[in-house]
Amino acid sequence: MQELHLLWWAVLLGLAQACPEPCDCGEKYGFQIADCAYRDLEAVPPGFPANVTTLSLSANRLPGLPEGAFREVPLLQSLWLAHNEIRTVAAGALASLSHLKSLDLSHNLISDFAWSDLHNLSGLQLLKMDSNELTFIPRDAFRSLRALRSLQLNHNHLHTLAEGTFTPLTALSHLQINDNPFDCTCGIVWLKTWALATAVSIPEQDNIACTSPHVLKGTPLSRLPPLPCSAPSVQLSYQPSQDGAELRPGFVLALHCDVDGQPAPQLHWHIQIPSGIVEITSPNVGTDGRALPGTPAVSSQPRFQAFANGSLLIPDFGKLEEGTYSCLATNELGSAESSVDVALATPGEGGEDTLGRRFHGKAVEGKGCYTVDNEVQPSGPEDNVVIIYLSRAGNPEAAVAEGVPGQLPPGLLLLGQSLLLLLFLTSF
Predict the structure, then answer these.
(1) Is the peptide bond before 213 cis (omega within 30 degrees of 0)?
(2) Which of 20, 132, 174, 207 is the most buried (most CB within 10 A)?
(3) In CATH, which of 3.30.450.150, 3.40.720.10, 3.40.50.620, 3.80.10.10 is domain 16-223?
(4) For residue range 176-194, what is the model confidence (pLDDT) as tens digits?
């Protein structure tokens, strides 16, 4: 029995002193250190003692960091990986290192990085990612790094940074972002404002400069002139496709999304109909109404035709096309959205009288809607019900026209055909 105890302690002692063959392991200044630098390694070697707190793998030939690469060293506080050939850091490669305080990934070839792993490193104080090939950093990449003091992102391929990227870094005192090819458009103006106002030390500010547009190439961000920038705005309107003509079943519904903003916003249509949701990035058709090359379409003329000028045409509009039509405009400064709910009903259906009375009540109050060149618009943000009657054989429906026979309540637009078109305009 005593022999078994001795054997057990011998095994534990051997494990405690284990070290990968190419590396040197030992204690220094109270830290358990594993030195694997300059060993020409092409992978993270296995067999580290579990109590290692400092690991150096610098100046090797590591091509990447796979998931669980450092699972053996959960107590790691310092990890040095500079001067390798790392291109990819996979999700889960760093996530287990919750005690990490210093991480050096500089002087590699990293273009693919699992930013979500940083969310678990809440104690991180030093992050060096300079001299890589990073082109993009998510806005929430540093959301958990409230202890971070020094961040080095210089000498990468960053063209822009999302506003608020550095907001979570409440302990930050040193930031290097020089020598990146910044696009000096409206989306980067916030960085100039923040850099001029912050107490964070930002060295080499003359090298935080514009690469594009050409007229601003070489201009330091701190001396960027005012740019004409504005967040998107949208106004959604409806217009029948056959002005002055008798509309028949299967008419073309035309919606127009008037978009403003600088830089020019990207327009997107979100359509929710009984059969599901349709997402369209405008335009999906040319001026001739035919699908653009590379655009997914069942036929050469899509069911929903989004034009470059902001118009959306729905040929042969019917019950299958009932639903909510939303246009969303987005640029570097934000987004804006406007929606219209479209429903068809034949005269005499239950909803007609209720909606009719509501419309007439607003008309008496001087509210409701009005028409300008056949475009239906609400008269105020709180008056969002528009009713358009399509009569039988051109005779107005009298259900809501109280008062003089044949006279229409203010704002009621009559068209010819036996359908009731209800439009609910809502702006966000």
Answers:
(1) yes
(2) 132
(3) 3.80.10.10
(4) 999 999 999 999 999 999 9
